[in-house]
Design brief:
Blueprint (H helix, E strand, L loop, with lengths): L4 E7 L2 E7 L4 E5 L5 H11 L4 E2 L4 H13 L19 H10 L8 E2 H7 L6 H9 L12 E2 L17 H7 L10 H5 L10
Parallel strand pairs: 1-4, 5-6
Antiparallel strand pairs: 1-2, 2-3
């Protein structure tokens, strides 16, 4: 195979896509509201990719993704990733993210600290936001400070981190609204 290829596949939460090269998986695209939007995003990010039957490596990734979205514990250990265009720091973040156990979460700060780069919290957040290997590298397990989930996963898609974590049995805190930040709810008064 020359260049990049992609395939669209069904999951319990919608039609996802996977993009690969001869080296490995280049990216995973979560389902958009409509399949045409998923295809449009593929062409925006990977205009050279052509639709093909999945390679053996891509098929292994697809099996893991579909299983994860049905609530199963996937095994992505045999899936090769094409990290050709991924900066070294981001690779380190992704490698560490893959060590977070299912059903658990870490914050950007915890990842930075684990990498020996405590001052790099913003860089960790940026790496997570740019994770092209959605679900294979479980960036949904990395949350902002306070274990708040964000609204939607990066690279488009209608699947929220909260929903992915719920499938894994984790229970993060929903993001605070501006109203809650400005006017915190007072604790209940003891009854007399």
């Amino acid at each position: 195979m020359v260049g990049r290829a992609y395939a669209i596949f069904d999951t319990a939460l919608g039609r996802c896509a996977i993009i690969w090269s001869s080296t490995g998986v280049v990216a995973v695209q979560l389902p958009e509201a409509r399949e045409i939007d998923t295809r449009r995003r593929i062409f925006q990010v990977h205009p050279e990719a052509r639709e093909q039957r999945p390679s053996e490596n891509a098929e292994l990734a697809i099996e893991g993704i579909t299983g994860l979205l049905q609530g199963a514990e996937p095994d992505f250990s045999g899936v090769s990733l094409d990290a050709g265009g991924v900066p070294g720091f981001n690779r380190r973040v992704y490698e560490h993210t893959c060590t977070i156990p299912r059903g658990e979460t870490r914050t950007h700060h915890e990842i930075a600290k684990a990498l020996g780069a405590s001052g790099a919290v913003h860089s960790v957040a940026q790496a997570i936001a740019r994770n092209p290997y959605m679900l294979i590298v479980p960036c949904h397990r990395v949350l902002e400070a306070g274990n708040y989930t964000d609204r939607h996963s990066p690279y488009g898609g209608v699947i929220s981190k909260r929903r992915l974590l719920a499938l894994e049995g984790a229970h993060p805190i929903a993001s605070k609204t501006l109203f809650e930040v400005l006017l915190p709810v007072a604790p209940p008064r003891p009854s007399t």
